[in-house]
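Appendix B. Raw example, untouched.
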Amino acid sequence: MAVAAVAAVVLALGYLREIAIWGLGWPAHSVGDRMFSLDSERNLPAWFTALLLLGIGVLMLRVARSELRQKLRTAWGWVALGIGFVYLALDERFMLHEP
């Protein structure tokens, strides 16, 4: 529930920024410049996304650990997904895909 509330606040701030710039004609620097932009890197929405991806990856790795203890065949799929999501979180935060 708390994650949904934080997501709603982050989205609302991003949308309000865009409305202020494009709808009302305010200069970008007067509404947080890129801090709340939903289309930029290294800002609040990007940090939030990175935290969500990291949380998902960690939960998947915990499922994998549980399944490995039970010797289930699906465990390695969870490992792959968990590592993939942790990589996505690191990429979102540190822009690994950027030159």
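End of appendix B.
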